[in-house]
Write a structure and sequence with these properties.
The protein has about 750 residues and is an alpha/beta fold. Among the domains are: about 1-35; about 380-585, Glycoside hydrolase family 3 C-terminal domain (Rossmann fold), CATH 3.40.50.1700; about 640-755, Sandwich (Immunoglobulin-like), CATH 2.60.40.10. The strands form seven sheets. A six-stranded mixed β-sheet has the order 11-16-15-14-12-13, sandwiched between helices. It has a five-stranded parallel β-sheet with strand order 4-3-2-1-10. A five-stranded mixed β-sheet has the order 18-26-25-20-21. α1 (about 1-35) crosses α14, α2 (about 35-45) runs antiparallel to α13 (about 315-325) and α16 (about 370-385) crosses α22. The two termini are about 30 Å apart. The structure holds beta-D-glucopyranose. Beta-D-glucopyranose binds next to loops.
Length: about 750
């Protein structure tokens, strides 16, 4: 009965969708029948009038171009009034009155800025992440925007690459869950809703695998590696219904993504059945010339033939497609198809019904930076922090005594928001000093000193300060600043050192070869440690850093990433134990740069070194260990969780018989807290070598102190599939190991048998 009801329901839903599609197709066909070729090509042109740009601004006379129907969309402007003015030109003064699409990089919130995406991924909490995207969409849509260039889902194993800050780390399972959650959050139930934003998954594809972590560098990888480890998060976004896809700057198999037919047509359209809009990245179309693919006309035709619909900034389509049509290098059918996809996006967003539907000054003033939104940002930030070390349980701090609050990031607004917070106002953010005062009140005596500049390296400072003075070197001598800080430390019960990177030391075009804390701050930290006072290091960083010295010498390390508007309050909540930290790393922290890439889902090799016996002729280094300093999935709590009794309900898994794996997790410490229980597998024998561990499931459990809970995971043979040499996801029977634990290193394990 239930099955019949479901079948009936699905049939009615399918008929409804078909009817809606027919209506949309009819509308667009009628509109397109009135369009000239120039107007169709105009729809493929996405321009920016300037502002926070990441390359040269190619487009001049934007207003005039809109009037002439030479612009399909605009990005980089915010605020209902500005957006309205541009929309007025399109709707009132262009021949066919086709509304514009307004986009922006709303990456981790609009004005209420949430933690950077890498931090959010450390919550392992898809509900919180979805909520953050919903709030971002509500704010951005009130501000007039229709489209966000997010989520960025590029898997990355190289922390030298600055854009790891924008993604969800190294793992495809976690990354896919987050990609889908963000799409759901932005797009809501229906794109036509006034508070929905069209999402854009990026950067398709493999951008996170740039060689040596150097920005915009070459990518080269096997198809098996792509399919199993790098492509799943993009696919998850597509399966979640993402409205658009952005191509990446890099090449794939020797052809830049923006002109890569295998990628954009064979894989994305034919294999994954993606029906939405494909847009290039900022001038990635014209950059194909520098890649060595030909002049602007050639690369524009290449992109059109590959399946690229919209050209961001390069104006290659606008200026060359008509000639290419004449020469037969592209077909009218292709141009029509691309134009149709742009118009479909506008239709689905409801812009043909009301082009002004997302410009609502009243809603903007009520919702943007509202107390509710700020609270959500604070909660998300608390959950994103990762406690890396807590020697002698120095944390949480008491709300009494004297704290020396030291460091260039301790009383700093400018760097709280992190990279890609283009609409965020740093002055609205809460600094750590303010947060501590808010949370601990007057019962704590705070001695603040800056102690050092973020960096004294003038080249680094200039490179970082492109969007404004994030690093503001003082005129005071470094020794004077240091002495002041040491004097404060000596008068205190505990030192809280707030150190790390400036916001734009990560993000686009911010690769670093040395990923340690900048030297000026290291010197400060060493001096603070020398005082003999307990030192708590609060870190600001958009990437894993090398922290070997810190791990050995400071008492506690709290990784606070870039926490967003509410960073300071959230940090204080955690420092004083109002929130017990629960974040878990989504990316391994290397011992040294020499280990990179270091990631948990590595292969065993033929000569693995397990740390026992002679290492000679084993896969290792003479001078550093193989293991990272902090592994994927790692993160401490103020309490302690113990794992026991891992048992399967039976030992043979088959396509028709899933297995349930049970275990008990107990809170044996002194605080209530939340744990992320992680399940990994290892396929012991397969036709393609498999990694030593692969995350398959995770669950969050909240446990009161002294409480135990049974945690149950269900595994089926789909969870055991891998990509074989024919690039098919397959299940091969045989022995599997299942590991469960609170990180990827410290686990319980059992062996199961997979049968047909
Ligand atoms: C970035 C994209 C971004 C675009 C528009 C590019 O430089 O790679 O992630 O969406 O600029 O701002």
């Amino acid at each position: 009965m239930r099955k019949q009801f479901m079948a009936c329901f699905l049939l009615i839903a399918a008929i409804h969708i078909q009817a809606q599609d027919n209506k949309m197709n009819g509308f667009i066909s009628t509109l397109m029948s009135k369009m000239t070729v120039d107007e169709k090509i105009g729809q493929l042109n996405l321009v920016t009038p300037g502002g926070a740009v990441t390359g040269s601004v190619v487009s001049q006379d934007v207003d005039e171009k809109i009037r002439q129907g030479k612009v399909g969309g605009l990005f980089g402007i915010t605020g209902p009034e500005k957006v309205r003015q541009a929309q007025d030109i399109a709707v009132q003064h262009s021949r066919l009155h086709i509304p514009l699409l307004f986009g922006l990089d709303v990456i981790h919130g609009l004005e209420t800025v949430f933690p950077i995406p890498l931090a959010m991924s450390c919550t392992w909490d898809t509900v919180l992440i979805q909520k953050s995207a919903r709030i971002a969409a509500a704010e951005a849509s009130a501000d007039g925007l229709d489209w966000t260039f997010s989520p960025m889902v590029d898997i990355a194993r190289d922390p030298r690459w600055g854009r790891v800050a924008e993604g969800s780390g190294e793992d495809p399972c976690l990354g896919s869950a987050i990609a889908a959650a963000m799409v759901r959050g932005y797009q809501g139930k229906d794109l036509a809703q006034k508070d929905a934003l069209m999402a854009c998954v990026k950067h398709f594809a493999l951008y996170g695998a740039a060689e040596a972590g150097r920005e915009y560098n070459t990518v080269d990888m096997s198809r098996i590696k792509m399919y199993q480890y790098y492509l799943p998060p993009y696919k998850a976004a597509v399966d979640a219904g993402v409205g658009s896809v952005m191509t990446s700057f890099n090449e794939i198999d020797g052809i830049p993504a923006t002109g890569n037919k295998w990628l954009l047509t064979d894989l994305l359209r034919n294999e994954w059945k993606f029906k939405g809009l494909v847009v290039s990245d900022y001038t990635s179309l014209s950059e194909m010339t520098a890649h060595g693919m030909g002049d602007l006309q050639t690369v524009s035709a290449l992109a059109m033939n590959a399946g690229l619909d919209m050209d961001m900034v390069a104006e290659g389509y606008l200026t060359t497609l008509k000639q290419s049509l004449k020469k037969g290098r592209v077909t009218e059918k292709q141009v029509d198809q691309a134009c149709r996809r742009v118009l479909e996006a506008k239709y689905k967003l409801g812009l043909f019904t009301d082009p002004y539907r997302r410009m609502n000054a009243e809603r903007a003033s009520a919702e943007i930076l509202s107390a509710t939104n700020r609270n959500a940002a604070r909660e998300t930030a608390e959950h994103s922090f990762v406690l890396l070390k807590n020697g002698e349980q120095v944390l949480p701090l008491k709300k009494s005594g004297t704290i020396a609050l030291i460091g260039p990031l301790a009383s700093n607004h400018r760097n709280m928001l992190g990279t890609w917070s283009v609409a965020g106002d740093p002055s609205k953010s809460v600094s750590v000093l303010e947060g501590i005062k808010n949370v601990a009140g007057t019962s704590v005596n705070i001695l603040y000193a800056k102690g050092a500049n973020i960096s004294d390296d003038s080249v680094l400072v200039a490179h970082t300060n492109v969007f404004g003075p994030e690093i503001e070197p003082e005129t005071r001598k470094p020794e004077d600043m240091l002495n002041e800080a040491v004097a404060a430390a000596e008068k205190s019960d505990v030192v809280v050192a707030v150190l790390g990177e400036a916001a734009d030391m990560t993000g686009e075009s911010s690769s670093r070869a040395d990923i340690s804390i900048p030297e000026s701050q290291e010197t400060l930290l060493k001096a603070l440690v020398k005082t003999g006072k307990p030192v708590v290091l609060v870190l600001f960083n958009g990437r894993p850093l090398t922290l070997e010295w810190e791990n050995q010498h400071v008492n506690a390390i709290l990784d606070a990433w870039f926490g967003g508007t509410e960073a300071g309050n959230a940090i204080a909540d955690v420092l004083f134990g109002d929130y017990n930290p629960s974040g878990k790393l989504s990316m391994s922290f290397p011992v040294s740069v020499g280990q990179i890439p270091v990631y948990y889902n590595a292969k065993n090799t033929g000569r693995p070194y397990d740390g026992k016996g002679s290492p000679k002729f084993k896969s290792d280094y003479l001078d550093i260990p193989n293991d990272p300093l902090y592994p994927f999935g790692y993160g401490l709590s103020y309490t302690h969780f113990s794992y026991s009794g891992l048992v399967p309900d039976h030992t043979q898994i088959s396509p028709r018989h899933p297995i349930q794996v049970k275990l008990t997790v107990s809170n044996t410490g002194n605080y209530d807290g939340e744990e992320t229980v992680q399940l990994y597998i290892r396929d012991m024998v397969a036709s393609v070598t498999q990694p030593v561990k692969e995350l398959k499931k995770f669950q969050k459990v909240w446990l009161k102190k002294g409480e135990s809970k049974e945690v149950v995971f269900t595994l089926n043979t789909d969870d055991l599939k891998f990509v074989n040499s024919q690039l098919h996801w397959v299940y091969e029977p045989g022995a599997f190991k299942v590991f469960v634990g609170g990180n990827s290193r410290d686990v319980l394990e059992i062996t199961l048998n997979g049968i047909r």
